[in-house]
Write a sequence for this structure.
């Protein structure tokens, strides 16, 4: 039916989606995406190539796009009022940042580096190779910012300066400040690293955090004094993390190692499976359980970026996570499924996957693995039942 007076065009608007469509680059959407393989095209705004990498679980506040800088090229100088974390998927190069007051800082990066540009500072990305493209994943809160203001000139041409966001000069050199953050009596202390730039996530020092599984390592980042959060975690050889759930918008990047992740809602017939290797990114939808598995001969690391930092939680779900609720069993009102409560199919699948890679399980101290392998198939079917949630769903 025709809408001659344009009534329907005045309601249920999504300025961020309209902006993305108007950039005239590919928009990819799926449960998970291989950012190294996505098609890009010329992106006038950056004077480079790019695409949007939208996931079904990105939620209302967060999104991702990929910037591809061709050999020997550079982007146009850029600035914007949304926060952004850049993870280098491939290539080598440098970034120049113009700070309030006229100071200019330049730092060089390579594969698997992570950096953030302080809010609304002008920046430019250079490809340092004359033969290979550089490809960067940009996780951002542009949906929050653009939908809030719905004025692109305000977002991209705003003269406001935020000198309190710059950090120290050393933060542009890959140095930083380490803080231990005490969350409470029942949960472990978190280790937080404040900086603007991490040279290489594969070698960055992580700290013990066994709440999510024996041998797990973790560090949280505060980047450019931002409201966005990032953390890097490592899964030991022959082991996997405990299942957990949280708010939407957490963009998980596999950094190294191989394996898979499983995702499900209580009562689902089947698990959703996402492969694990560098370049893969996915975003668990709101309140969907997910679990990470390492099936290779080396530890596996990942990077997770979301809204709500350790300093500025922003939303109640992130504040509760920061207080440690995310590492408490669902039977006690938390968000985590303990190993003894998980579906038996989960460990059975893990053991079968390890057979194909030749890696030995290191979880025999938790599971009766011969008994699990001996279970008949009839006992490994049906819907996924999780322990009953106790307390408020926060």
């Amino acid at each position: 039916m025709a809408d001659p007076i344009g009534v329907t065009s005045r309601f249920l608007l999504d300025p961020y989606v309209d902006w993305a469509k108007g950039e005239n680059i590919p928009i990819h959407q799926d449960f998970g995406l291989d950012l190294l393989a996505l098609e890009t095209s010329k992106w006038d705004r950056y004077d480079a190539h790019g695409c949007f990498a939208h996931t079904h679980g990105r939620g209302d506040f967060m999104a991702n796009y990929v910037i591809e800088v061709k050999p020997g090229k550079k982007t146009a100088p850029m600035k914007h009022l949304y926060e952004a974390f850049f993870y280098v998927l491939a290539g080598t190069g440098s970034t120049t940042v113009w700070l309030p007051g006229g100071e200019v800082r330049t730092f060089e990066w390579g594969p698997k580096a992570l950096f953030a540009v302080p809010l609304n500072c002008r920046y430019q990305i250079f490809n340092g190779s004359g033969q290979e493209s550089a490809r960067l994943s940009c996780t951002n809160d542009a949906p929050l910012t653009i939908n809030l203001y719905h004025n692109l000139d305000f977002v991209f041409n705003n003269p406001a300066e935020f000198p309190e966001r710059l950090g120290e000069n050393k933060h542009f050199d890959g140095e930083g400040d380490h803080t231990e953050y005490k969350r409470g009596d029942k949960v472990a202390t978190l280790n937080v690293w404040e900086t603007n730039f991490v040279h290489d996530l594969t070698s960055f020092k992580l700290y013990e955090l066994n709440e999510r599984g024996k041998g797990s390592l973790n560090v949280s980042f505060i980047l450019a004094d931002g409201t966005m959060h990032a953390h890097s975690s490592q899964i030991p050889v022959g082991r996997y993390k405990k299942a957990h759930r949280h708010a939407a918008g957490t963009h998980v990047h596999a950094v190294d190692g191989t394996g898979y992740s499983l995702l499900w809602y209580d009562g689902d017939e089947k698990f959703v499976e996402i492969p694990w290797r560098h370049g893969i990114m996915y975003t668990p939808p709101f309140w969907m359980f997910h679990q990470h598995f390492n099936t290779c001969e080396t530890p596996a690391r990942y990077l997770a970026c979301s809204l709500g930092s350790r300093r500025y939680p922003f939303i109640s779900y992130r504040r509760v996570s920061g207080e440690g609720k995310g590492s408490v069993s669902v039977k006690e009102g938390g968000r985590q499924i303990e190993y003894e409560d998980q579906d038996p199919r989960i460990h059975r699948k893990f053991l079968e996957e390890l057979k194909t890679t030749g890696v030995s399980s290191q979880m025999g101290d938790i599971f009766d693995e011969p008994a699990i392998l001996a279970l008949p198939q009839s006992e490994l079917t049906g819907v996924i039942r999780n322990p009953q949630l106790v307390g408020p769903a926060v």
Q: What stands out?
A: Residues 180 and 356 are 40 Å apart (CA to CA).
